[in-house]
Specification:
Distance between the termini: 36 Å
Shape: elongated
Helix content: 25-40%
Largest sheet: 9 strands, mixed
Strand content: 25-35%
Structural class: alpha+beta
Low-confidence stretches: 1-11
Bound molecules: zinc ion
Number of strands: 21
Length: 414
């Protein structure tokens, strides 16, 4: 999850506010709050344990197994789908709809990354400790609190550890879930827990498109074949052009060239050169315009190649391949989940701000379903680096926030 622009928070309707106050007064909700406060040391153990289980994109199985065992221990009805998404169902009524709580299993760290964690005072350190070990722990903590306090939701609840949120995962876990029975229809609302924090919520899904751009040529010897077009030079020209494209500040639109490679040796004209570009915007329209500019810049660089290398069986070619496509979307201001969250924040004395980000919520939001992404409590930093940290101070405030929001969405039997 990556945060972007803050904008003003919505105001909760009075009746929702009263409902939150009533829920928070209930005896078993109090018991759940107490559990969330008292179990902090256990949550830290879980968090370090799960952060040390590798979960690179397309390699989430072991971490999924950790979650499966945790949810099993809570007597939930646990299943794992063909992609590795883990589901723990708290079913009350076979006919009722489902409210989902999700946390992604995957990290950005490739296989072989040292995943050691450490602890000093309230601060945990280690790759993925916040994004998203904190989210997984928050989800299990809330499920555990509900079971222990015998909270009986009116709607059914499913806790989901999903694969494929980060990078090349391209939201594959969520896409699968929302395109395949039974969850595609059963799940009306999704509360996504991603990373640390208590004071933000994501209602606007940042759209992104990612491309791999490749130039190819016959290549050759640097001396004897001099004159054969050089793919590295062509790629560099295309990227230099693209880097000068003007993007609007509002709706915020950005681009990045994150990876570049090509060539074999200093005295060879390379046969190919490749770069990866990440285009983002809050607006699908701006995203489309930016993609067109990228295609133009690449095409322009190619069209400067001498005709002899382009005509007929073109010896110099380029390809632009899509390697990621995340829809931009926005939660309506009057959405129930937003009303509820704002009322919960008001009740807990949290001053929250809305943010724009690319998260698992992009998928349900783009389908017109209600979804919001919030943090797992505590504080964190250094996401997607080896210096990542999570500060556990007041984590329980974030956990109460998740629990109250969920209970208000499901309703509870008294
Ligand atoms: Zn994340």
């Amino acid at each position: 999850m990556s945060s972007r622009i803050p904008f003003t928070s919505a105001r909760p309707a009075g009746s929702v506010q009263a409902e939150i106050a009533r829920l928070a007064e209930m005896r078993n909700v109090h018991a759940a709050f107490l559990y969330l406060h008292n179990q902090e040391m256990e949550f830290r153990r879980w968090q370090r344990e799960v952060a040390e289980i590798a979960a690179p994109p397309f390699g989430e199985t072991a971490r999924g197994e950790w979650l499966r065992q945790r949810l099993n221990a809570l007597n939930l009805d646990v299943t794992v789908d063909e992609l590795g998404n883990v589901f723990g169902v708290l079913r009350q009524d076979p006919g009722a709809s489902f409210i989902g709580v999700s946390a992604h299993l995957d990290t950005v760290f490739p296989h072989g990354t040292r995943l050691e964690t450490s602890e000093e005072g309230n601060r945990l350190r280690g790759p993925g400790i916040s994004d998203n070990a904190a989210g997984l722990v928050a989800m299990v903590a809330v499920a555990s609190a509900m079971q222990r306090a015998q909270l009986r939701p009116v709607a059914n609840v499913v806790f989901i550890g999903n694969v494929g949120e980060e990078g090349e995962g391209n939201l594959r876990g969520m896409r699968h879930l929302f395109s395949t029975p039974p969850w595609k229809d059963a799940l009306s609302t999704l509360l996504v827990i991603d990373g640390a924090g208590t004071d933000t919520y994501v209602t606007q899904a940042l759209g992104s498109r990612r491309f791999e751009i490749t130039f190819r040529s016959p290549g050759g010897h640097s001396w004897s074949d001099f004159g054969i077009p050089n793919p590295i030079v062509l790629l560099a020209r295309a990227l230099a052009r693209f880097s000068e494209v003007a993007v609007p500040e509002s709706p915020r639109t950005t681009f990045n060239i994150g990876v570049i490679h090509g060539g074999t040796s200093v005295n060879s004209i390379p046969a190919s050169a490749t770069a990866r570009a990440d285009l983002r915007s809050a607006s699908m329209e701006e995203l489309q315009i930016l993609e067109e500019r990228l295609r133009e810049c690449v095409n322009e660089a190619w069209s400067e190649v001498p005709l002899a290398f382009r005509a007929g069986e073109a010896k110099v070619r380029f390809a632009i391949e899509s390697i990621g496509d995340r829809p931009a979307a926005e939660l309506p201001k009057n959405a129930r989940i937003l009303q509820v969250l704002c009322a919960v924040d008001a009740h807990l004395g949290i001053r929250s701000i809305a943010r724009l980000a690319s998260t698992d919520a992009n998928v349900p939001l783009s389908l017109g379903k209600e979804a919001i992404t919030i943090g797992a409590g505590g504080d964190g930093g250094g996401a997607h680096t080896l210096r990542e940290w999570f500060d556990c101070t007041n984590r329980d405030l974030g956990l109460k926030r998740i629990l109250l929001t969920l209970l208000a969405l499901t309703g509870i039997h008294e």
